[in-house]
What we know:
3-stranded mixed β-sheet, 9 helices
Amino acid sequence: MAIDLTAFFKKYEELLAMADDAFDRIQREYPDCVKCKIKCADCCNALFDLSLIEALYINYHFNDKIKGQDRERLIEKSNRIDRRIHKIKKKAYKAVEGGKTEDDVLMELAEERARCPLLNDQEECDLYDYRPITCRLYGLPTAIGGSGHTCGLSGFVQGEKYPTVNMDVIQRKLFGISDELVKEIKSKHIKMAELLVPLSMAILTDYNDEYLGVGEKMDDKDTERIQNRGEGNDKTLSGRRGKKKKGHI
Length: 249
């Protein structure tokens, strides 16, 4: 990845800092409700997707920090987990095509488990300092599409009012950074900012000039191939983690 993404990473890191501040504040205000602790890895087994800027960020730090046998081990884990996620999503889309509502399918997906490739044998994250924004907010009350969600292990009580993180706003900000990046590099893939991928795919992908749509002009087959790398990913899955509790949070 020869393109300098420093400016866009800085904007993304500012958003990460805001997420960390929100978590710290709510944890201080509701210490009996936020149950997050070291080696509690419930969130590390849930399904969620990354925006383009998140995928580029985790990919960059994976390649920068993970070397040698550790790198080979994590790539093998990512391949295995990515295949599992693909099967889960394929099943979900068939269910929608078969007549199930999107909400019902999403509820079923919330029950699926897929261990993050970055979760090591000590139940700790191998890239904790660079973890995605969804990971940083897990354990707090969140709102997605107007529905309240929180970690099933938390102490937040159904029907009570708590400070709530609006994930739709965060997703719009992530898309904004991604869209600005796509326009700045003059990518031929004008809709690439809409692409969402699981973390496993973000690790495995080579975000070179060809993938990003810069440099030599590509034919229609090249463009179609790159666009299809994100096929089967759904915006509504991004950030949708943890069990949905009835009532408002």
